[in-house]
Hints:
Radius of gyration: 13 Å
Distance between the termini: 40 Å
Helix content: under 10%
Order of helices and strands: EEEEEEEEEE
Low-confidence stretches: none
Mean pLDDT: 96
Amino acid sequence: QVHLVESGGGLVQAGGSLRLSCLASGRTFGSYAMGWYRQAPGKQRELVARINSGGSIYYADSVKGRFTISRDNAKNTVYLQMNSLKPEDTAVYYCNTVPMRWDWGQGTQVTVSS
């Protein structure tokens, strides 16, 4: 059973930066595509970034050029560097495989003030 733990969220002013981390315990994840998802109040969860096992990367248009996804397979950890944050980035951020295979973690709240 895989346990996902996201961390690194917080309150930041518009234009600021945060770095999110997600540790997957219980299974090595090197062979899986991993993604960061987010869910804003009243909206559906959406995929914002994906990194494949081979390293190829996808970003949603809304975050392209501002967010950077990376992974450290030795540490079973995936990261999301978020720069130039906007109020519309406010959401709970989650990680999971792409497509989703594991139970969701608790997520980490990101709040961007204007």
